[in-house]
Amino acid sequence: MKRRTVARLELLLSLATLGYSAWLRRFLRRHGEDVEPLSPLGLVAGAVTAAVHRALYDRDVGRIRTRRRRGLLFGLCSVGWQRLLRRASSDPDAFRYGYGLGRGVGTLLYRTWFGLLRDLPGDDE
């Protein structure tokens, strides 16, 4: 599959995920369920992390796109980064939900700019 097609699929998936998350939160509130608060810091951290991850992947920095083991190691480092930030926050659960939502926002914004409106950076392989 071409990289541009994959980027567009990522864009659609992040849009669908964000739409579902918003719908689910409204649905739960409407039916009297407690909805976990979102951490603004988590939202920002997730969005920045997702955008940086996509930028490094598109540019194949450290050959993380073309070498599967390096890509796996990079993904594990990303998980470690999220856990480190979560532990440092005052409300880890709110941070986790905000971070997850922020990753969707970051992916949506990055893939709208690179993949939909502009060509993908890096070499096509």
Automatic annotation (TrEMBL):
It comes from the Archaea. This is DUF8097 domain-containing protein. Residues 2-124 form the DUF8097 domain.
